[in-house]
């Protein structure tokens, strides 16, 4: 039996076309609607298009809007699953934001495309059909927000865009995908063991993300303090270390009750308090730096925004990052 699927279009390459000059851009009509006959043969669709934005234009405001649309449909009942089409550049941030905050009980799948609708080998309609199949699957329930592209099912918490243009760009470097989409159906081969969710109402705080490098000093960190940010995420070195010259800035932020969260600038692995030298993980922990649990920089930033919407207590924020 066909399921009732809420389909929310938000823009991105999946809803763009290439013009005669080779520029990929949004047009007056969403080309995805051309797939409607085919799509409505696999599910009964309720379509929403709250905005049409390339994903570099997406902010937490739009993410919050999506959360409320999903929750409103959940309250009304009669929806079995939802698919969101989204630009791929910030797709992982929106997916993770919804994973952390959305209270809807049906499966939510986020998808996109690397090639626009009229390019040879366009992957948009294919990814959309796969995503509708996943959102229709009762096995997709309770696994958090999922990201489906290129026949793979990833969790929002682990997935990241790894390549600028390749259609297999979305990967989960820590743990791999949790399922696949095949011609015969949807197959989950792993189940996430934990899922966190926070019922926040608004995102108003300012969190910056910066990357550590050899010889990094404290100037940017000090500037962030002057700019009155509410939190800072640093992509630290290796297992979670910083150059000694950056420590003054870290200390100033923490002294002023600004949480400093570290992730690793390495592609995979988690940060830990391993090294005991100046600026090493053990030292950073003593200074009050919060270690994220395997998130990448952009997702730790989303989580810190959510944490700051809940509390300004440093110990509560640190506890949320231990999850
Ligand atoms: N493939 C894509 O969707 C990339 C595009 N720049 C976007 O994120 O909107």
UniProtKB/TrEMBL annotation:
<dbReference type="Pfam" id="PF17763">
    <property type="entry name" value="Asparaginase_C"/>
</dbReference>
<dbReference type="InterPro" id="IPR020827">
    <property type="entry name" value="Asparaginase/glutaminase_AS1"/>
</dbReference>
<keyword id="KW-0378">Hydrolase</keyword>
<dbReference type="InterPro" id="IPR037152">
    <property type="entry name" value="L-asparaginase_N_sf"/>
</dbReference>
<dbReference type="GO" id="GO:0004067">
    <property type="term" value="F:asparaginase activity"/>
</dbReference>
<comment type="subunit">
    <text>Homotetramer.</text>
</comment>
<dbReference type="Pfam" id="PF00710">
    <property type="entry name" value="Asparaginase"/>
</dbReference>
<dbReference type="InterPro" id="IPR006034">
    <property type="entry name" value="Asparaginase/glutaminase-like"/>
</dbReference>
<feature type="active site" description="O-isoaspartyl threonine intermediate">
    <location>
        <position position="13"/>
    </location>
</feature>
<feature type="binding site">
    <location>
        <position position="55"/>
    </location>
    <ligand>
        <name>substrate</name>
    </ligand>
</feature>
<dbReference type="GO" id="GO:0006528">
    <property type="term" value="P:asparagine metabolic process"/>
</dbReference>
<protein>
    <recommendedName>
        <fullName>asparaginase</fullName>
        <ecNumber>3.5.1.1</ecNumber>
    </recommendedName>
</protein>
<feature type="active site">
    <location>
        <position position="88"/>
    </location>
</feature>
<feature type="binding site">
    <location>
        <begin position="88"/>
        <end position="89"/>
    </location>
    <ligand>
        <name>substrate</name>
    </ligand>
</feature>
<feature type="domain" description="L-asparaginase N-terminal">
    <location>
        <begin position="4"/>
        <end position="192"/>
    </location>
</feature>
<comment type="similarity">
    <text>Belongs to the asparaginase 1 family.</text>
</comment>
<dbReference type="InterPro" id="IPR027474">
    <property type="entry name" value="L-asparaginase_N"/>
</dbReference>
<feature type="domain" description="Asparaginase/glutaminase C-terminal">
    <location>
        <begin position="206"/>
        <end position="321"/>
    </location>
</feature>
<feature type="active site">
    <location>
        <position position="13"/>
    </location>
</feature>
<dbReference type="InterPro" id="IPR004550">
    <property type="entry name" value="AsnASE_II"/>
</dbReference>
<dbReference type="InterPro" id="IPR027473">
    <property type="entry name" value="L-asparaginase_C"/>
</dbReference>
<dbReference type="InterPro" id="IPR027475">
    <property type="entry name" value="Asparaginase/glutaminase_AS2"/>
</dbReference>
<dbReference type="InterPro" id="IPR036152">
    <property type="entry name" value="Asp/glu_Ase-like_sf"/>
</dbReference>
<dbReference type="InterPro" id="IPR040919">
    <property type="entry name" value="Asparaginase_C"/>
</dbReference>
């Amino acid at each position: 039996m066909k399921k009732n699927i809420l389909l929310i279009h938000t823009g991105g390459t999946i809803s763009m076309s290439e013009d005669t000059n080779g520029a990929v851009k949004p047009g007056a009509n969403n080309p995805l609607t051309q797939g409607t006959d085919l799509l409505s043969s696999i599910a009964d669709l309720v379509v929403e298009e709250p905005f049409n934005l390339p994903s570099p234009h997406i902010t937490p405001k739009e993410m919050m809007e999506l959360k409320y649309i999903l929750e409103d449909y959940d309250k009304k009942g009669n929806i079995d699953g939802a698919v969101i089409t989204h630009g791929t550049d910030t797709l992982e941030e929106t997916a993770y934001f919804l994973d952390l905050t959305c209270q809807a009980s049906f499966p939510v799948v986020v998808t996109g495309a690397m090639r626009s609708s009229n390019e040879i080998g366009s992957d948009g309609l294919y990814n959309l059909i796969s995503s509708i199949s996943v959102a229709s699957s009762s096995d997709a329930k309770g696994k958090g927000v999922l990201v489906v592209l290129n026949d793979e099912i990833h969790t929002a918490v682990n997935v990241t865009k790894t390549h600028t243009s390749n259609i297999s760009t979305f990967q989960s470097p820590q743990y791999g995908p949790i399922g696949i989409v095949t011609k015969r159906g949807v197959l989950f081969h792993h189940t996430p063991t934990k899922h966190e969710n926070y019922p926040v109402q608004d995102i108003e705080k300012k969190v910056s993300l910066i990357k550590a490098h050899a010889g990094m000093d404290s100037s940017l960190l000090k500037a962030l303090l002057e700019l009155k940010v509410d939190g800072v995420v640093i992509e630290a070195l290796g297992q979670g270390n910083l150059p000694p010259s950056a420590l003054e800035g870290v200390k100033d932020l923490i002294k002023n009750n600004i949480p400093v969260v570290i992730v690793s600038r390495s592609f995979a692995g988690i940060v830990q308090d391993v090294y005991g030298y100046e600026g090493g993980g053990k030292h950073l922990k003593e200074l009050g730096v919060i270690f994220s649990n395997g998130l990448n920089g952009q997702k730790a930033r989303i989580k810190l925004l959510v944490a700051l919407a809940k509390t300004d207590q440093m110990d509560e924020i640190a506890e949320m990052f231990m999850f």
